[in-house]
Amino acid sequence: MLYLLSAALAAPPAFPTLTADEQAKFDRGELVIRADTSTPMTVSTGVVKVKAPPALLWTETLDFDARLPENPTIKSIEEYGRISPDEWFVRFELSIFGIHVTIHDRWTCFPAEYYCTFAQDPGATSDVREEAGWVVVKPHPEGSAIAFHSQFISEVWAPSWIRKWLANDSMVNVLDKLRVRTEKKAR
């Protein structure tokens, strides 16, 4: 399954098509979240518009150090290898209600098209499997729009309510706080 996802991610990810209700929420400047925890795989997608130019939003999206004070579940972020300026390895240490999770990702970015894909680093031990996702920034009449997608199966047992909370809260911590930070810098 991960192989198929990797092959599909070779092209820029399609920006999610929003339902009428989601579009109304997006137009109001609110974060749109789709989360599914009905299977062992947790799938979460978030979309929000940002009143800032795409280049600034792109830079802020890749500022992993800025995420630490914004996201109380992330305890540390460490780059542990770089293949090129646009491809690197990152270890995320998370703690959620006393459950500790380590994730090792390989990020591949395409700055000219404003998107990155990420997938679990098979050469490192993580507490998730079949983990992958993407982030894409696009121009919008009011500045920019960003979509973030993540899917994973945790190797650490967690009750379904924690998975659901994580699927929703992670989008708030990743995208809504990114929106606030980027809009402050755009002023």
Report on the structure:
This protein has helices at 2-8, 20-27, 54-61, 64-70, 160-186; strands at 32-36, 42-50, 74-84, 87-96, 99-110, 115-120, 128-140, 143-154. The termini are far apart. The chain has an eight-stranded antiparallel sheet with strand order 1-2-8-7-6-5-4-3, sandwiched between helices. It is an alpha+beta fold and 187 residues long.
Helix content: 25-40%
Structural class estimated from helices and strands:
alpha+beta
Instruction: Report mean pLDDT, rounded to a whole number.
Output: 89
Q: Helical segment tally?
A: 5
What is the radius of gyration computed over CA atoms, rounded to a whole number of angstroms? 16 Å
- Secondary structure: number of strands: 8
Write the layout of secondary structure elements.
Elements: H1 2-8, H2 20-27, E1 32-36, E2 42-50, H3 54-61, H4 64-70, E3 74-84, E4 87-96, E5 99-110, E6 115-120, E7 128-140, E8 143-154, H5 160-186
